[in-house]
């Protein structure tokens, strides 16, 4: 008598969610204003405003932008606001910070609108190991979003998952 091999994972109610599937296409750019500062450290308002006015902002069409200053200069808040006002007609998203913060902010927007009804009362695996730059914070945000609805939450792959939460 021959026993058939049964794929219990495929037959289970287990649902896998892969944050990589939600990764939005689009170029990411770190816009460093250091070169717009006098000697890399001093923001001269008139010179800065002139550079903002003369700059071709259209090159950021459909681009995700992280604004930063890599020097130790003290940048007034209005400078980044002014940059964002000029970027807004073109860029998909603008943040002050690094590229990881930009990715976290992008995922926060995505997860805020995620419909979790398909995960209601189901065991869920949050797939790890991404080829795309999914920030660690996105996994935390997803787990917290799933916690009120999922039967259980695990991390990893179906064959080797780590249990994180079980609804009582």
Key traits:
four-stranded mixed sheet; elongated; alpha/beta; single chain; 168 residues; 2 domains
The residue fraction in helices comes out at: 25-40%
DSSP summary: helix tally: 5
Strand content range: 15-25%
Number of strands: 7
Question: What structural category arises from helix and sheet content?
Answer: alpha/beta
> Based on CA inertia axes, which overall geometry fits?
elongated
Gap between N and C termini: 42 Å
Low-pLDDT segments: 6-11
Give the rounded overall mean pLDDT. 92
For the largest beta-sheet, the strand count, sense and barrel status come to:
4 strands, mixed
| Rg measurement, Å | 22 Å
**Spatial order of the strands in the main sheet?**
1-5-6-7
**Order of SSEs:** HEEHEHEHEHEE
Q: How many discrete structural domains?
A: 2
């Amino acid at each position: 008598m021959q026993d058939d091999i049964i794929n219990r994972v495929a037959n289970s109610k287990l649902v896998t969610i892969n944050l990589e599937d939600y990764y939005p296409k689009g170029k990411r750019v770190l816009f460093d204003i250091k070169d717009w500062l006098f000697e890399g450290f001093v923001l001269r308002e008139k010179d800065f405003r002139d550079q903002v006015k003369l700059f071709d902002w259209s090159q950021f069409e459909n681009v995700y932008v992280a604004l930063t200053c890599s020097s130790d200069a003290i940048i007034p808040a209005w400078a980044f606001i002014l940059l964002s006002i000029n970027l807004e007609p073109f860029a998909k998203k603008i943040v002050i910070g690094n590229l990881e913060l930009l990715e976290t902010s992008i995922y926060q927007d995505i997860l805020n609108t995620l419909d979790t009804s398909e995960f209601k009362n189901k065991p869920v695996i949050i797939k790890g190991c991404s080829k795309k730059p999914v920030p660690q914070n996105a996994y935390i945000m997803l787990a917290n979003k799933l916690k009120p609805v999922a039967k259980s939450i695990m991390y990893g792959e179906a064959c080797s998952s780590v249990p994180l939460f079980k609804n009582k």
